[in-house]
Amino acid sequence: MSRTFSAEDEERLRQLHADGVSRNEIAQEMDWSVGTITNHAQRLGLSFDREATRAATEARQVDLKDQRQQAQQRLMDFFNRQLDRAQSRYLVHGFSHTGESVAEWLQEPPARETKDLTAAATQALDRALKLAQFDAEHDGKHLSAIDRFLQGVMGDPTEPDE
């Protein structure tokens, strides 16, 4: 059996809205869908301020970009360490024909180790470049459609006027 949004529901919606409760919390508390709450709020002239959500989303995007940049730096550091290792002295351990433990320094790692080190370095570089590419492609995409439209009409505010 379907139920109808009653005058009591409207009053409760007004009260919760006035108390600053979010749309999703109102829907959960009143046991209605988010869409129903949105539709009735619009009909009643109530709007849910999205500025706090927008600010939180933008802050999260900044945090994620910072984390990607930190990861990119660590990958570049790893890349450089692997290249350095591939071109530096290398200690080889083994056993002689009599069973003695033998260690010898080589001027550079054997071919197999050099290949493994450069493969690890290449993978790290590839991942670092992908992180940089992601940030380059997504700068400004967290803007709202209206903000992007205005930016297109008015130009980029960071560019100097002619």
Short description:
The protein is 64% helix and 7% strand. It is mainly alpha-helical and 162 residues long.
Describe the model.
By secondary structure, the chain is mainly alpha-helical. It has two domains: 7-43; 51-154. Helix content is 64%, strand content 7%. It has six helices and two strands, in the order H-H-H-H-E-E-H-H. The protein has helices spanning 7-18, 23-30, 34-43, 51-86, 111-138, 145-154, and strands spanning 90-95, 101-106. Strands 1-2 form a two-stranded antiparallel sheet. A hairpin with a 5-residue loop joins strand 1 (90-95) and strand 2 (101-106). The longest helix has 36 residues, at 51-86. It is elongated. The relative contact order is 0.08. The mean pLDDT is 86.
Strand content: 5-15%
Q: Quick one: overall form?
A: elongated
Order of SSEs, N→C?
HHHHEEHH
Please give the share of residues in helix.
55-70%
This entry's quaternary arrangement is single chain
Class from helix and strand fractions: mainly alpha
Low-pLDDT segments, ≥5 res: none
The count of β-strands is: 2
Strand order of the largest sheet: 1-2
Instruction: State the distance separating the first and last CA atoms.
Output: 67 Å
Q: Report Rg.
A: 30 Å
Largest sheet: 2 strands, antiparallel
Number of domains: 2
**Average predicted confidence as pLDDT:** 86
Key attributes of the depicted protein:
2 domains; mainly alpha; two-stranded antiparallel ribbon
Write the layout of secondary structure elements.
Blueprint: H1 7-18, H2 23-30, H3 34-43, H4 51-86, E1 90-95, E2 101-106, H5 111-138, H6 145-154
Antiparallel strand pairs: 1-2
